[in-house]
Amino acid sequence: MEESLSSTSIVKNLETRFVGQRVIYYPSLASTMEAARREVQQGAAGGTVIIAGEQSAGRGRKKRTWLSPRGNIALSIILYPSAAYLPYLIMLASLAVVYSIESVTGLKPQLKWPNDVLINGRKVCGILIESAVRGRKVDYAIIGIGINVNLRLADFPEISPVATSLSDELGSGASCIDIIRRLLVEIERLYLDLPSGEFAYQQWRDKLVTLGRRVRVSWGETKYEGIAESVGRDGSLLLRCPDGSLTRIVAGDVTLRDYE
Ligand code: BTN
């Protein structure tokens, strides 16, 4: 889908108080994460968003690369949350992605703990959160979001078995502008709800494909296997291990064993 992504196309009449009220758009960038960090160093306001038309060195979790050619979404949002809210950012961001894709395309994404958004079992979005914490104080948090919007997976055989895009699922192109605008509204809404203690935990939990499934979780050298039994309100995964014990996992990479 041909559209003219720009700061104005995102900010104009955007119904938010602060998220996306300043958007810095680069037609091409190495990674929005680095650009966002530079903005933080220059005192960027909370809610500032960096968007790249395409990234030449998009970063995924665990030093993986993230493919983001033109026609897809690559953005980073700068926030200055209190330490208590830091664990919620991943839940909040993934739920906001689900809501925005649902409302713009009608597709029904699901979540794979901790932070992958899937459609029909394949990854359509990746989320990366980077933060700097000193003692109990969060200097900044940057939420990086990459969504495969108009990616022809047939052109990328290296990821096509595990990835999908909105256009491949829809059979036609989707609007990055519409999705980004909805996403920023949803992120702000969920973020501003945090102090009320009314985080949409139940909605987030309901979207998880992981629960009840046999999974393998790896974090560095540590590996767990078991049934993903539940999730805590802090976003941690409760894994029932083969010996009957329950292990709480706060971070890791999940493989759904029954997809293998
Ligand atoms: C993952 O699933 O591994 C996370 C992928 C995160 C990709 C996004 S695209 C926008 C932002 N800039 C980057 O370099 N990475 C994140």
Looking at this protein, list some descriptive labels.
23% helix, 7-stranded mixed beta sheet, 12 strands
Write a compact overview of the structure shown:
The protein has 260 residues and is an alpha+beta fold. It has helices at 7-11, 32-41, 89-105, 166-170, 176-193, 201-206; strands spanning 23-29, 49-55, 73-79, 110-112, 116-119, 122-134, 137-147, 214-219, 222-231, 237-240, 246-249, 253-256.
Topology:
Elements: H1 7-11, E1 23-29, H2 32-41, E2 49-55, E3 73-79, H3 89-105, E4 110-112, E5 116-119, E6 122-134, E7 137-147, H4 166-170, H5 176-193, H6 201-206, E8 214-219, E9 222-231, E10 237-240, E11 246-249, E12 253-256
Helix pairs in contact: 3-5
The structure holds biotin.
Structural class: alpha+beta
- N→C terminal distance: 33 Å
Strand content: 25-35%
Count of alpha/pi helices: 6
Ligands and ions found? biotin
The share of residues in helices is 10-25%
What is the overall silhouette? globular
Q: What does this protein structure show overall?
A:
This protein is 23% helix and 31% strand. It has 6 helices and 12 strands. A 7-stranded mixed β-sheet has the order 1-2-3-7-6-5-4, sandwiched between helices. The model has no long low-confidence stretch (mean pLDDT 94). The structure holds biotin. Residues 31-33, 55, 58-61, 64, 66, 68, 74-76, 126-128, 144-146 line the site of biotin.
